[in-house]
Design brief:
4 strands, D-Maltodextrin-Binding Protein, domain 2, alpha+beta, two-stranded antiparallel ribbon, elongated
């Protein structure tokens, strides 16, 4: 997800990401990108014939390109993340006076 989210972060130097990942990660990345004004496109890519059969049975078109709004249909979404270590776009959630003190970018 960090790679996908980095494409919407101007200081990252990344403009596009290509790859294969999991469906949950794609949906979470889509929510983050939608919040940041970015975009995502993807297709279902089953790992085996059983997954392909289940997806087709559920009514999914295996050739359809899914966009940001297909993965996150509403405009009322948010994304929140913190890191174990500080990185370019995530900071560690610290405590202040024994209460969580998250940082924002």
């Amino acid at each position: 997800m960090a790679g996908a989210i980095s494409t919407a972060w101007p200081q990252s130097g990344a403009d596009v990401l290509f790859g294969i990942g999991g469906t949950p990660e794609g949906v979470i990345s889509a929510a983050a990108l939608k919040c940041m004004g970015g975009a995502i496109q993807g297709r279902l890519w089953p790992r085996n014939e059983a997954e392909r059969a289940e997806a087709i049975k559920a009514g999914y078109d295996m050739g359809q390109v899914l966009g940001t709004d297909d993965l996150v249909s509403g405009d009322n979404c948010f994304f929140s993340a913190t890191g174990i270590t500080t990185a370019t776009w995530s900071r560690v959630c610290t405590t202040h006076r024994e209460r969580p003190a998250p940082s924002r970018w």
